[in-house]
């Protein structure tokens, strides 16, 4: 498992993919911070609003993380080397976990700049609420885990990287549509069920400083479901 993790991490930096992903995230987050947080907040305000920056990053990651995960399993299937991986002396759960951890590590590296924005902003205003910033960061980190696991799952379904990326984007959009569907469902069991599955609603709780264990466990559970489904797909291919 450790060997697979190291191999996957190395592959992101042998090719331009890792550098491009980190660079794109840095460029977008920096631009959003400058235009929507640093220059749009008054130092005399009672608090600093991070919502525009993180909300925009929410949608940027919806598109960029699939580019990070599209090759994880689809490339091996295309190159016909997947059987070597599937028969390696490591459990499929370990294989899937290692690949997820590698992609997620690249994502975390790209998000490491976020605390720096708080430090920069604190030099210009006393209105900075570190607790709110931490809530936004927690939400985006957990959301990134869901997007990464979803992308890994989709990558196990096809041998075409671009198809995997496109399908992952649509899946990420679908994960957000539960909140919209709940609003159209009105009231009742169906609306409550859809609302309880909403990633957006639980994400927004973090952004207002609500650190609920239930919400953390929800995100972790969604990740676990996607990883479990990925293992099942690989198991079926192993014995096909």
Tell me about this structure.
The protein is 78% helix and 0% strand. The longest helix is centred in the middle third of the chain and has 26 residues, at 130-155. It is globular, with a radius of gyration of 19 Å. The mean pLDDT is 84. It is mainly α.
List the total number of helices: 12
Query: What class would the helix/strand composition place it in?
Result: mainly alpha
Q: Estimate the mean pLDDT confidence.
A: 84
Report the major sheet.
Answer: none
Computed Rg: 19 Å
Per DSSP, what share of the residues sits in E-state strands of 2 or more residues?
under 5%
Spatial separation of the terminal alpha carbons: 23 Å
Number of strands: 0
Order of helices and strands: HHHHHHHHHHHH
Q: What share of the residues lie within helices? A: over 70%
Given as residue ranges, the uncertain stretches (5+ residues, pLDDT < 50) are: none
Shape: globular
Please supply descriptive tags for the structure shown above:
mainly alpha, 240 residues, 12 helices
Summarize the structure.
The chain is mainly α.
Helices, strands, pairings?
Layout: H1 2-14, H2 17-38, H3 51-69, H4 74-78, H5 82-86, H6 92-111, H7 114-122, H8 130-155, H9 161-185, H10 189-196, H11 199-207, H12 213-238
Helix pairs in contact: 1-6, 2-3, 2-6, 3-8, 3-9, 6-8, 6-12, 8-9, 8-11, 8-12, 9-10
């Amino acid at each position: 498992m450790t060997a697979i993790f190291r191999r996957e991490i190395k592959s992101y930096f042998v090719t331009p993919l890792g550098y491009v992903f980190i660079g794109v995230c840095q460029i977008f987050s920096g631009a959003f911070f400058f235009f929507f947080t640093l220059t749009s907040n008054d130092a005399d305000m009672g608090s600093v609003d991070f919502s525009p920056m993180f909300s925009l990053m929410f949608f940027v990651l919806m598109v960029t993380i699939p580019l990070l995960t599209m090759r994880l399993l689809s490339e091996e299937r295309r190159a016909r080397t997947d059987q070597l991986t599937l028969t390696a002396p490591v459990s499929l759960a370990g294989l899937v976990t290692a690949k997820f951890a590698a992609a997620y590590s690249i994502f975390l590296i790209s998000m490491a700049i976020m605390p720096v924005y708080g430090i920069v902003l604190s030099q210009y205003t006393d209105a900075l609420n570190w607790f709110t910033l931490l809530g936004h960061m927690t939400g985006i980190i957990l959301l990134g885990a869901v997007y990464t696991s979803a992308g890994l799952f989709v990558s196990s379904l096809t041998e075409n990287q671009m198809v995997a990326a496109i399908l992952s984007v649509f899946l990420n959009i679908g994960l957000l549509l539960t909140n919209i569907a709940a609003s159209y469902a009105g009231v009742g069991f169906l609306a409550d069920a859809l609302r309880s599955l909403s990633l957006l609603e639980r994400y927004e709780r973090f952004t207002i400083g609500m650190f609920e264990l239930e919400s953390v466990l929800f995100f972790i559970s969604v990740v676990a479901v996607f990883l479990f489904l990925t293992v099942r797909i690989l198991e079926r291919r192993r014995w096909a």
